Amino acid sequence: MRSKAALAYSLLFFWSGATALVYELLWIRLLYQAFGSTIQSVTTVVAAYMGGLGLGAWLLGSRGDSHPRPAALYGWLEIAIGCFGLASPLVFGMVSWLYVSVGGALQLEGAASMLLRFSLAGLALLVPTTLMGGTLPVLTRAFAMGDRGALRRTVGSLYGLNTLGAMTGTALAGFLLIEHVGIRLSLWLTGLSNLALGLWALWLARSLEPAPPATPAHLDPSPSRALRRLGLVLLGVTAFASLLDEVAWTRVLVMIVGGSTYAFTLVLLTFLLGIGLGSVLVARRGAPEPETGASAALAQGVTAAGAALLLLFLGVLPGYIVALFQFHELGSTARLLLLGTVVAAVVVVPAIGMGMSFPLLNDLVARAGDSRARDVGRAYAINTGGSIAGAVLTGFVLVVWLGTDLTLRLGVLVNAASALVLAVLVSRGVAEGSAEHGRLRVRVVGGGLLASLALAAAVAAPRWSTRLIDLGPAIYARRPMDAAARRAFLQHAGSRQLAFREGWNATVSVWEAYWGHALKVNGKTDASDYGDMDTEVLVGLAPVAARSGAASALVIGYGSGVTTRVLAAAPGMQRVRVVEIEPAVLAMDRYFRHVNDSVLDHPIVTVQVDDARSALQLSHERFDIIVSEPSNPWLAGVATLYTPE
């Protein structure tokens, strides 16, 4: 492809990445409104989305090799994505209606409800995500044609630019579009953008020569076949570790920088920035397989070492956040930028290693022949499968069973082991003292050394202090504090942690001081048996006084159980239902039985573990009183109870 056309298509693919992330965030927001924001809902939606991307890469990869004008095919893919984007408000409205109608009629709960969510999410997302998944392999074919040596450069530059575009889309959706434009209008504007991208791509394709037909791909019978097979495995394994890290980083960083939508956006934005930069860094002409393997070993070593640094830096970050909030003259934008700097310091280095890994491993496993789109499609599909496994297992199993600390150490072990195995295989069969040996030595030794240091840190670094992680500095460090007050704050002076549990949806703890007990969710106090008691009692008494003769009540958010106790004790009350999104909150009930009178044992009280919005949509029950406790609309997820959208 000529340089001017290549530059134009690169710009198109950058903005294609931006529109893809805008779609993802907006579509997921719409599905959250229908399905709720529990980990089950989040994971099923993300799995369905990624599954479509992988399927599209696999199916359309072979189509890209056989198409005489892959650049034009890319344009038609963008147009089809844009058409779906324009229709998506209607499509997702129908999905919401189907979920409420079917789930409500059958009164589905638990696994049956989750299966319905996954089926509907897959149905809604299958077409657009399949189209999106095909754009990278198809455009790779248009760029590289049959040039095996250009594969790494093409994939690295395209994947990197697309990811940097995704970072831009994340910023646009998280900081601008959702709040100031609205979901529906944003989807329409994004759909029009894809139509424009597709038409531009078709116009550019008119001046390009048709692509020669691809020759059948096959594996070379060479001593490096073991290295290629390992590369295929590592495409999935390293993607698993990447999503493991992303999910676990988000859990712990939200505890420190806060749980707002902006905090989640910052984590995703910096993660994508690192991946995009890493891909661009390795976007150069392909090298011999041992050299590519050595570079992949170094990339995994960088990933492991960067992830291990988090284990060491985490104890310092709360102090930095406390100091940051003492500059009261800073505006919200400046403070957000500084928080982004903190997140970037933790996330960007390992994310750069992740971004380097995909183009290198893809180049390592590419077959002979000139089926470039099929090569990329296969690699991307395997990579996406690993990402799905990482998201599902981390969210459902690892964080809950092992905790975030051990989960992140597991991720370090996976990346370090990948680096060491690659380094060993690469170094075998290379003659000592040869020119090739000299080129490989620095990368092999560097990757092995970084991996070894990361392994040492994962095994020997002290466990996190759950007291320090549980500070909630972004919430409670806003008041003026001198040096002594900062030290006391960081040490939780005068209080001790009675319990700490990482649940599916949140991290929950109970603290005891001489003045009483407090329940914390993600570092924020949500209930107590001292200062919050007036609110907890009045939020139950007020609706009882306003609605005389009330016989049924719904409590959203259990907290300490005091409000539920007040409602259960009201004269004439016959039925009280509690909807709590996090089971770990209910597990802390034993620390508050002295103020809630063991209300969970009361015969008229029932508990449902679910997202309140989803529970209300599927239930046919009606209540005389509905109480939301606590009401924090600025927290991500909670806002769906309030927004008219």
**Order of secondary-structure elements:** HHHHHHHHHHHHHHHHEEEEHEHEHHEHE
Number of strand elements: 8
- Average pLDDT level: 87
| Strand fraction | 5-15%
Could you say which structural class the secondary elements and strand pairing correspond to? alpha/beta
Q: In words, what does this structure look like?
A:
With 645 residues, the protein is of the alpha/beta class. It folds into two domains: 7-211 and 222-296 and 303-405, Growth Hormone, Chain: A; 533-641, Vaccinia Virus protein VP39 (Rossmann fold). It contains 21 helices and eight strands. It has helices at 3-35, 39-66, 70-106, 110-144, 151-181, 183-205, 225-257, 261-281, 289-313, 317-324, 332-365, 372-427, 435-460, 466-469, 473-476, 483-490, 533-546, 562-568, 583-587, 593-596, 612-618; strands at residues 495-502, 507-513, 516-521, 524-528, 552-556, 575-580, 605-609, 625-628. The strands form two sheets. It has a four-stranded antiparallel β-sheet. Strand 2 and strand 3 (516-521) form a beta hairpin. Helix 5 runs antiparallel to helix 8 (261-281) and helix 7 packs antiparallel against helix 11 (332-365). The radius of gyration is 27 Å and the shape is globular. The model is unreliable at 217-223 (pLDDT under 50).
What characteristics describe this protein?
about 650 residues; alpha/beta; Growth Hormone, Chain: A; Rossmann fold; 2 domains; 4-stranded antiparallel sheet
List the topology elements:
Layout: H1 3-35, H2 39-66, H3 70-106, H4 110-144, H5 151-181, H6 183-205, H7 225-257, H8 261-281, H9 289-313, H10 317-324, H11 332-365, H12 372-427, H13 435-460, H14 466-469, H15 473-476, H16 483-490, E1 495-502, E2 507-513, E3 516-521, E4 524-528, H17 533-546, E5 552-556, H18 562-568, E6 575-580, H19 583-587, H20 593-596, E7 605-609, H21 612-618, E8 625-628
Parallel strand pairs: 5-6, 5-8, 6-7
Antiparallel strand pairs: 1-2, 2-3, 3-4
